[in-house]
């Protein structure tokens, strides 16, 4: 492990948003039977994620499974296929309402932009969750992503009808030149209209989240702070700040050069400003209003519990098995994956994914813990894995000694410095096997 105090270390090296990364997924030697995966154990507290892989435009930095290639007919076909997949999991003995303990704790719709579906299709999809999986929207935590252009008052009222708990909007910036620089067609006027809907008195919901990005082309320390103060003035319950990462095969890749020193300054200024305005930092990216402190982490985060993914870009996690459809970044390949999904006639088996070794399960536990201020309890780790994390992973001791992690009795959690370097710290735990598979990945 390198010494992180080295001034050459880049805090914006790699975003560990899932472990292992989907580029490490491969065809299983033998497909996994869905009934055997989900039908034989305790399936309480399952998170449900539904992927809508369509957007009105593709941002210049985006490497997610999304496309702008769609029509009303294609959206309807996609929703109908989602419902077929939902029915497959809702069969008796799998995750249907007949199975004792098959209870969903959260429902998350992401993408892409779920609200590209018209309200009729969205309601058709939500009703299918009630009918085939027994979802009670009054009881689950219901979260959805949207965009400024696709949010309307009519849409918001539909979501409130289904007891929406959290709505997240990617604002990114309040400056048109910065938005155009990332090939975004949702400009300041669209943003203002969406905020008016979301923060009107009659539109109140439990958690309203706004996203911003720092490191944009043409962005200065001053324009970054002005966008941040504009978001704060709305008083959202949650704010995410993302460093701009530009990946291969995205529109910005050839011409963008990051100024990591300026980005570091922007990050530090944001942490200070948000703290002064009553926000608690929970991770490198996430800040919550002090009023939410008692429930620091609502149960909508991927990989915290069992996750069932529905849709061509969704991942599922059950035990040591991760599975999904295939992954791509290039538009032609994404559209081919969607085409294949629309032709799928058998959702009884999972054929593509990753089976975590015992060591990888331990790494997943650590990575999903030490990059949040809540950290993890070493006694809980020992109870789960019958071993000592500090003995197994000397990186933890080094990070503690260098001030990036704090050990307080049985709890290990990131320091202020550790939060800033979260993305780099995450890369220290990736195994050589996963790195190799990621490097060898081909769409």
Q: Mind explaining what this structure looks like?
A:
There is one protein chain. The protein is α/β, with parallel strands linked by helices and 443 residues long. It folds into 2 domains: 23-295, tm_1862 like domain (pyruvate-formate lyase- activating enzyme), CATH 3.80.30.20; 358-435, Arc Repressor Mutant, subunit A (Orthogonal Bundle), CATH 1.10.10. Helices cover 37% and strands 20% of the residues. The chain has helices at residues 34-39, 72-89, 119-133, 153-161, 176-181, 188-198, 221-234, 260-276, 331-343, 358-370, 378-385, 389-392, 394-401, 416-420, 422-427, 432-440; strands at 26-33, 46-52, 104-111, 141-146, 166-172, 207-214, 238-243, 279-281, 286-289, 306-310, 315-318, 321-324, 349-355, 376-377, 405-408, 411-414. A 9-stranded mixed beta sheet has the order 8-9-7-6-5-4-3-2-10. α2 runs parallel beside α3 (119-133) and α7 (221-234) packs parallel to α8 (260-276). The radius of gyration is 21 Å and the shape is globular.
Q: What would you say about this model in short?
A:
By secondary structure, the chain is of the alpha/beta class. The protein has helices spanning 34-39, 72-89, 119-133, 153-161, 176-181, 188-198, 221-234, 260-276, 331-343, 358-370, 378-385, 389-392, 394-401, 416-420, 422-427, 432-440, and strands at 26-33, 46-52, 104-111, 141-146, 166-172, 207-214, 238-243, 279-281, 286-289, 306-310, 315-318, 321-324, 349-355, 376-377, 405-408, 411-414.
């Amino acid at each position: 492990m390198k010494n992180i105090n080295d001034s050459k270390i880049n805090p914006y090296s790699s975003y560990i948003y899932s472990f292992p990364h989907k580029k490490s997924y491969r065809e299983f030697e033998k497909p996994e039977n869905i009934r055997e995966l989900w039908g034989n154990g305790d399936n309480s507290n399952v998170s449900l994620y539904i992927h809508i892989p369509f957007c009105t435009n593709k941002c210049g930095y985006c490497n997610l499974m999304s496309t702008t290639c769609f029509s009303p007919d294609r959206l309807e076909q996609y929703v109908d296929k989602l419902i077929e997949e939902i029915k497959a999991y809702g069969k008796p003995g799998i995750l249907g309402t007949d199975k004792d303990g098959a209870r969903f704790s959260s429902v998350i719709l992401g993408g892409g932009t779920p609200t590209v579906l018209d309200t009729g299709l969205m309601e058709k999809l939500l009703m299918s969750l009630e009918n085939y999986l027994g979802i009670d929207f009054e009881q689950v935590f219901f979260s959805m992503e949207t965009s400024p252009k696709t949010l309307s008052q009519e849409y918001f009222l539909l979501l409130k009808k289904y007891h929406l708990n959290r709505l997240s909007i990617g604002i990114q910036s309040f400056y048109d030149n910065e938005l155009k620089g990332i090939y975004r067609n949702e400009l300041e006027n669209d943003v203002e209209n969406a905020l008016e809907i979301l923060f009107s008195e009659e539109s109140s919901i439990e958690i309203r989240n706004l996203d911003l990005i720092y490191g944009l082309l043409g962005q200065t320390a001053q324009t970054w702070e002005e966008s941040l103060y504009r978001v704060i003035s709305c008083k959202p319950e949650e704010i995410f700040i993302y460093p701009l990462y530009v990946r291969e095969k995205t529109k910005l890749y050839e011409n963008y050069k990051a100024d990591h020193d300026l980005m570091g300054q922007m990050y530090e200024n944001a942490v200070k400003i948000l703290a002064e305005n009553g926000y608690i930092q929970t991770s490198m990216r996430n800040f919550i209003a002090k009023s939410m402190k008692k429930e620091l982490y609502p149960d909508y985060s991927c990989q915290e519990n069992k996750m069932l993914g529905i849709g061509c870009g969704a991942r599922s996690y059950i035990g040591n098995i991760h599975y999904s459809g295939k992954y791509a970044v290039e538009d032609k390949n994404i559209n081919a994956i969607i085409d294949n999904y629309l032709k799928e006639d058998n959702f009884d088996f999972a054929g593509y994914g990753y089976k975590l070794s015992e060591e990888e399960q331990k790494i997943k536990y650590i990575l999903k813990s030490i990059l949040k201020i809540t950290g993890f309890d070493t006694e809980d780790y020992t109870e789960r894995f019958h071993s000592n994390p500090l003995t197994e992973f000397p990186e933890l001791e080094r990070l503690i000694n260098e001030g990036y992690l704090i050990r307080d009795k049985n709890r290990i959690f990131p320091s202020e410095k550790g939060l800033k370097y979260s993305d780099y710290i995450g890369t220290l735990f990736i195994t050589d096997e996963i790195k190799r598979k990621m490097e060898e990945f081909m769409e």
